[in-house]
Amino acid sequence: MLVTVSIKVRREVVDLADKMVRLGLARSRSHAFNRMIEKGLDKIREEVGFWEDTLIRLEDLSRSGYRIRHGGLSRLLVEGRSR
After folding, report:
1. Of residues 63, 51, 54, 9, the one with CA closest to residue 33
2. 28 touches 21 (CB < 8 A)
3. From 50's CA, which of 21, 34, 76, 82 has a CA 20 to 30 Å away?
């Protein structure tokens, strides 16, 4: 199912999409953006998986009574993911 969304992207990304259309690598800008997103999804999935695993391990340590000496690791992990 396709869903229409409006996003802001850097000019260089739009220029790249236009080049893809001109070269026949994409049928439209929309198709070009989808191709760019899909080619990058594997890397994003890896990053999300890493942070999910890290958070699960941190929660497991917390439940088992392990205390992080200086505290704040959970806060750092959440802040790191939000960037």
Report:
1. 9
2. yes
3. 34
Instruction: Output the CA angle 41-46-47, nearest 5 degrees.
Output: 95
User: CB atoms < 10 A from the CB of 20, how many?
Assistant: 19
Q: List the alpha helices (DSSP H) in 1-83.
A: 11-22, 29-63, 73-82
Please answer whether residues 4 and 13 qualify as being in contact, where contact means their C-beta atoms are separated by less than 8 angstroms: no
Residues of the chain with pLDDT under 70: 68-83
Are the C-beta atoms of residues 62 and 46 closer than 8 Å to each other? no
